[in-house]
Amino acid sequence: MRVTRRAVLKGLAATGVGAVTGGAAYGYLYERHALDVTRAAVAVAGLPPALDGLKVGLITDVHRSHWVSHEDVTHAVARLMVERPDLIVLGGDYVTWGGGDNHEFVQPSAEALRPLEARYGVFGILGNHDDDHDMPAALTRNGVAMLKDARTRVIVRGEPLDLVGIRYWTRRGADIAALMRGATGTVVLLAHDPRRLAEATALNVPLVLSGHTHGGQVVLPLVGAIAAQKFPVVAGIGRRDKTTMFVSRGVGTVYVPVRVNCPPEVAVLTLISEAATRTV
Questions:
Q1: Confidence class of residue 26 from pLDDT cuts 50, 70 and 90?
Q2: 225 vs 187: CA distance, rounded Å
Q3: DSSP character for 13?
Q4: Is the pLDDT of residue 259 over 70?
């Protein structure tokens, strides 16, 4: 029988959070609110000099719900704005799907993200917990340029940067290739699911930004992130051929309101050329 991420997290809930002991209690009471700001230099193949040093802010997997409060989200927004990124990406899963009460959090989630602003814009994609209409409409009303299987171009210091945003459900390489057709600048694929690394590599996409994994959410000593083992990159920077991927641990939690050895984060990524050796 196939073991799913949901089953693993619910099993951990039954054995860990249910008992409210040790690391599980710490993960529920403290760690799920202990937001990190992750600053990373990300090497990008073929990056032109004009884009070297561009700061990209990434917030993903907000999962606004009864368990993820307005304050959790606004705190993440405030921490990112202090970093003054040049461009901001929202990686999907703004609410948690299930039951039917998720709809009440669509507008509050979008409103909590409204203070985000950057010189070159704020762009969003959809995750597997987002509907295809109400959530993107709410985000659009609050200043986010939504990329639903779409490409847009940003001009940075005279250099084109092409952002290709796909929905979680868009998986075929041919469909992604069609969105890239005509792109002449550096391409960044915004894909909620890190498993799109395979398609990006085949298409020679130099950079992919993702979320979805929550970094595993529960990372056990010696064992690691059980719930995220199927992903090519669980958290942080990964590389396949000439494609670099960054996967954020995200802000919220899903299925189980706990994080263990895996605090939430917002990320600030400084793009650098492959030849660069400096650090942020």
A1: confident
A2: 30
A3: I
A4: yes
Residue 136's H or E segment, with its range, is helix 134-141
| pLDDT, tens digit (0-9, with 9 covering 90-100), for 182-196 | 999 999 999 999 999
**Is position 163 within any domain?**
yes
Comparing CA positions, the residue from 81, 62, 61 lying closest to residue 71 is 62
Residue 182 lies in a domain: yes
- Of the pLDDT bands very low, low, confident and very high (cuts 50, 70, 90), residue 98 is low
Report how far residue 215's alpha carbon sits from residue 124's, in angstroms, rounded to the nearest whole number. 20
Domain holding 112, by residue range, is 5-273
Q: What is the pTM of this model?
A: 0.90
- CA 252 to chain centroid: 11
Query: Can you give the CATH number for the domain in which 232 is found?
Result: 3.60.21.10
The phi and psi torsions of 26 (rounded to 5 degrees) equal -65, -45
Side by side, which strands form the sheet with 87-90? 36-44, 265-273, 55-59, 87-90, 122-124, 145-146
279 belongs to a structural domain:
no
Domains in the chain: how many in total? 1
